[in-house]
Structures are given as structure tokens and as C-alpha cells.
Amino acid sequence: MSHATAEKAATAEPEPAAPKKKALSEGKKAERRLGWLLCAPAALTMVAVTGWPILYSLLLSMQKFDLKFPDRTEWVWFDNYVAVLSSPYWWNAVWVTVVLTVVTVAVELVLGMSLALIMHRALVGRGIVRTTTLIPYGIVTVVAAFSWRFAWTPGTGYLAEALGGDPVLTEKIPALMVVGLAEIWKTTPFMALLLMAGLALVPDDLLKAAAMDGASGWQRFIRITVPIMKPAILVALLFRTLDAFRIFDNLFVLTAGSQGTSSVSMLTYNNLIKGLNLGIGSTMSVLIFIMVAIIAFVFIKLFGTAAPGSDDGGKR
């Protein structure tokens, strides 16, 4: 060690010791053990119910398992993953799913926020406005999808006749646009409902004080309302993104996955249920599970620290 280094080490101030964790009393330890014991049956049941299907799908995904040829079952390890990830049909379904998810969730966030602001501030007919807005969300998705299908069927549909009678559901891009509109119409009320709950967190006194200081309506919305609503916005975006990524009902009824409009869920259904190919279908299911887990992880990492009362690490 050089003389300068030794002198620097001798004069450096010692680092503050980490605070010692307070020891729990015997009563607290007993309460904690009792809590674990009471939660254990429910926790074990949840692990068994959710864990076994995941594990079984993982095992099936590593086998060549076709119910039409059960005597040809064999272990192929990761060959199914190579087959799926090198298939253009899979990547087309991923593209369709991602585009529908991003576009519909973005539009629903804007429309949902607008509806939430209207329902939150409406002084006359508030109950009628809220009830009317939430009607589409109360309709069963398959029923709503059939209404959209009939509306866009040439000869019987008023929307198809209004736009010249072209069969839009038989072409890829127009069909995807109709599917996106059906998704937005159906689930925007759900987004508005969650955002309206977030608006209730914004104190009116704070908005009035900002208005008296000369802040415009847009400035109050961006600098006060949105930051306070971040937890509600996170929940709304996370729920809708995961839901939109698993889109199935509207595509099944409107296009049946024809003309390259299959989502990853529909492609998995076609292989697993219609094709009886348990190996390939389970492989797709595992890949969807991984993608959904990544989406949830990214959302929590990006927006988790926005929750009120959280520290810099996103912990309470």
C-alpha cells in the first residue's frame, strides 16, 4: 500500500452502520406463525390448482403428442419450440395480437379517460350517463360479437350497406379494423370505470387552489390529476393489456381466424382443440404464458413506483 493511499484510508470517515433490525417479541412471533398456519391451506390449494396445469403444459410441450396418433407419442424436448418459433403462422399471429393490443388499449385509454371525466363532473343526469355508458360492458362478448358480425354482413347489415355493401370481414386489414372497433366498443366502459375510481382520489381543494393560482384546466389535469391517478391508470392499463393480449371471442365470431387474422390464442385453440395436437398446442400455451408474464413484469417495473406511499424502490 502506498503512503498516500494509507493516509487517505486513515483519514476517511467510517461509513454509518446499517440500522439493526428490531427483534420481534414472542407475541409477535406467535401471531406471525398463526398467520402462516391459517394461510397455508389456501396457499397450498392455490399452488396446486394453478401450478399443476402449468407444469403439465410444460411437460406436454416437450413431447410429440397428437391424439389422432396416440401410439406415436415420444419425447422431443425443445423441438416443438423450434417448430413454433420458426413458423410464419405463429409470428403473423403475434403481429396481429400485438397490433390489436397496442391500438385498442391506447384508444380505450383516451376514450375511457374522457368518459370518466364526464361521468365524474356531470351534475345533471349523472346516473343516466353512467348507466348508458356501461351498457356495452354488460353485454356478453359473444353476443356483442355476433351483433357486429351481422352489422357488417352485406345484404343484412346496416353498417355494410352504409359503406357500399363490401364484404369487409373477408379482407385482412378491414377485418382487423372491425375487430378493433368491436373490442373498443365493448371494453372502453371498463377502462372508464377504473379511471373514474382514480378520479375520486383527486382532492377538489387542490384543484381549486391551483385554479386560483392561475393554472389552466389542461395544466391542472397534467400536473395534478394524472400524477395522483397513476395507480388507477396502471391498474386499468395492466388489466386491459393482459385481456386484450388474450383476444379470442371477437376474432372467433367475426373472422374465425381466416385471411391471416388469427391471434396467438386462436392459433393455440386451432392446434390444441381442433387439431388435437397437444404437443404443439401446449408449446404455444407456454409461450403465451411467458409473454403475459413479461408484460406484467414490465408494467410493474415501469409504473410500480408511482403508487402513493411507495419509496424509491417501489416498496411500501
From TrEMBL:
This is ABC transporter permease. Keywords: Cell membrane, Membrane, Transmembrane, Transmembrane helix, Transport. The keyword rRNA-binding does not apply. PANTHER family: BLR7065 PROTEIN, INTEGRAL MEMBRANE SUGAR TRANSPORT PROTEIN. It comes from Lentzea guizhouensis. GO terms for biological process: transmembrane transport. Belongs to the binding-protein-dependent transport system permease family. The keyword Transferase does not apply. PROSITE patterns: ABC_TM1. GO terms for cellular component: plasma membrane. Residues 1-26 are annotated as: Disordered. Residues 94-299 form the ABC transmembrane type-1 domain. The chain crosses the membrane at residues 34-55, 89-113, 134-153, 173-201, 276-300.
